[in-house]
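User: Predict the full complex structure for these chains.
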Amino acid sequence: MSVNKEWEPKILVFTCNWCTYTGADLAGLNRMKYPENVRLIRVPCSSRVNPQFILRAFMKGCDGVLVCGCHPGDCHYVSGNYFTRRRFMLMQRLLEYNGVDPERFQARWISGSEAAKFRDTMIRVSAQIKALGPNTKFREEWYVKGGIANEPSK
Amino acid sequence: MLLDKKRLKEALDILSREAKVLVPMGMDGIAKYTPWDGQKLPDLDIVNTMLPPKDTLFPQTEKMYNFTTGPNAQIAEVQATENQVLFGVRSCDARSIDCMDKAFLSGTFGDSFYSKKRENLTIIAVGCVKTGPFCFCDSMGLDPSSAPNADVQLADLGDAYAVTAQTERGTVVLDQWKSLLTEGEGDAPKPTCELKVNVPEDFAKKLLGMFEHPIWDEVSKPCLGCGTCTYVCPTCYCFDINAEKHGNEGTEFRCWDSCMFSDYARMAGGHNPRPSKKERVRNRYLHKLAYFNEQHGQLLCVGCGRCVQKCPSNMDITRFIDMAGEAIKNG
Amino acid sequence: MSQVNEMQAQLRKVAAELLETGTVGYIIGWGATRFPDRTTPVFIHDAKDADKLVWNEYCINGLAKYVLDDKIKDKKIGICVRGCDSRAINRLIIDNQLLREAVYLIGLPCEGKADKVKCGKCAHKNPVSYDVLIGDLVTETPVTDRFKAVEDLEKLSADEKHAYWSGVYEKCVRCFACRNVCPVCSCKECYADQYRVGWQGKQNNSVENWNYGLTRAYHVGDRCVECGECERVCPMDLPLMLQNRKMLKDINELFGDYECGLSDDRAPILGEYDLSDRDEYM
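Assistant: Here is the predicted structure of the three-chain assembly.
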């Protein structure tokens, strides 16, 4: 394992099983290159994503979070992504209002055949968050300090 | 001895050289004990802080152990070692520290986290000049102008404080201040509380006999089950222990808990002996007015009035004492 | 104010009648405390105690939450409701926490109480639903600055907003008064009490408190009836309505004019969808 001297962001991507994950799979099959700092979590539908997941991701050290699902109208469960749309428009605005940089949380519709869109989105988001730097807002102390070894004894 | 008020800043500076000095300060309208920054003088004109000084000895979140798991598991205790001075404590809060001492240090097992902090704490009390609308300490057996368990007692004489050492540690403080003190004496103001409560004789015993009395239903109805009263109370000392784990490392910490929370008494298996707010309110009032008295010989309620002031439903322990007194009189 | 005294007399009369005729099992209202500027919720079971009910400028507490305490089988629970309380009752009915038939609403038009912050942006002085009305309906005045404070905060930069909210949640003591007084927060077991699950730690630090604050704001979300109780009861005077109003402002902008709890049958915004919703994620 090579030692990575430069900071790389940790980006969590919630991908819906039927569209985005398939799209990511297709990107892989076609040997499309995208940055390794995106970590995918497969969910059955984008509406499975609880806004608390986003908060927890930021608390536990993620620098960016992405929620991806099927295009509206194409949801495997018919109406899931309509709820996603409403929910995350509100969540995004609430997070921005609380001081989280707006580019750290994004949502995108990526379908199963849009491997290129998947790759492009990952590259773009990764670059945006790398430019923003590590996220210190809303992050738990342990993740800010990097372990209890670095904690001052109170 | 007298300490001129103009020299208060110097007095605090001297104390700050060897200890962290906590003074009552208003922060955005909420007064609490905060570390003295060396500049702004403490707010001693307020009747009392909103948050009690118990945080000094019993922090809201207190790390106890750092640990690592696995084959080379280790536990490292986190111990506080700094000296602290609580400056400007009122009689009610000073008595509350006495109550907490009894809770944490008496019996066969002394709480080491508390005792370490207590050993390194100096209490400088200041007698009240006026009382507030919610104060009722003198009905609970306290004197607003005097805190017998404080290390140093200050009395506000207008331009100066009369300074009296009450313990060995207090004598050390006076020694540190000797360049600032002048000879002199004065009569401390002796305010009394407007709010009078009649605490009946043998109240503890009588209350314990009223465990199934219908008064509890009536009194507990407005309670919302939040933790406000317990968190602003200077004598509430219940805590929970939890751990924060990250992979193989973690920290065990203790944090304030409240008997008013619905799951406070819930046991493994799900049984809850205090399922409704009637049981929880009864438990809290009995603890303050009866149980602690039976165990340690003094009331756990010091009459500071913070719970009365801050309760969202305006519940009132003084009203309860009056009602209970009536009920006892009527048999 | 003589109008208030008349209303108090009428309220006591109506309350006594309701109890005597057995229409209600008990009545929830406001009663006096030893302090002239405070009232406390009272629960009147007997017609002869009806004189304990008061109606004055210090009747500030929200009463709606107390209807969840008991379920009386054959009698209704009477409750004094102002505009904010009646919206809260509607909210509970929509959330299936309460049956409309289980409560008897004693409507009291209210021109604002002594708490100017809570009552400052009141858009519904008259109760939105009631079974009996005490006094006369008052004229509603439209609220012009419902979201002004939110807009002012939005203008700050991300770092400034972060600093502001960080400071706010540093002060939070997690007493849960906001949650317990809120008529929307009626979960039998709150996520914050489920320590073993792990969403919310018990430590009191800025991030955990912020997590609690944001999660509660989001869980309440579109269901906030803007009663202002959360902000009133907070012992640390935190500006909690700023979070709730932000949610409502966004909902108004994105999904059309919206006020919660005006009737007892509208489904919540986040439980519905519209095919023509704005889409920002293409």
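Helices of chain A lie at 20-29, 51-59, 80-97, 115-132, 141-145.
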